[in-house]
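@channel sequence for tomorrow's demo:
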Amino acid sequence: MSPEARTTLDDQVAALRAFRDERDWSRFHTPKDLACAISVEAAELLDAFRWSGPDTGVAGREDKVREEFADVMIYCLYLADAIGEDPAALIADKLALNEGRYPADKSRGSAAKYTEL
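structure tokens (generated this afternoon):
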């Protein structure tokens, strides 16, 4: 693991802001454009698995999966920043919501949506 990977989420957001600001790109980082970028990068991540048949693992495509996954995460962090949200708090809030929606005793081993449990 690289030293950069050991930094906190706040450190990563600060590094992304610095990268963006050094290039004067903040004008392009509107919430709509960042949401579009997330969708595009998620499609590129999915493309890494196209024509893989029953093979759902990452063997042989690790580099592509890592690169596209990082792109999705980066744009998600930029979007959280653009809308003034703390990504860690967003995750914590959603996890708490999902804990209520998907109680372990009802959802264990099931792919059903919470409305079907």
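heads up for whoever presents: The chain has five helices and no strands.
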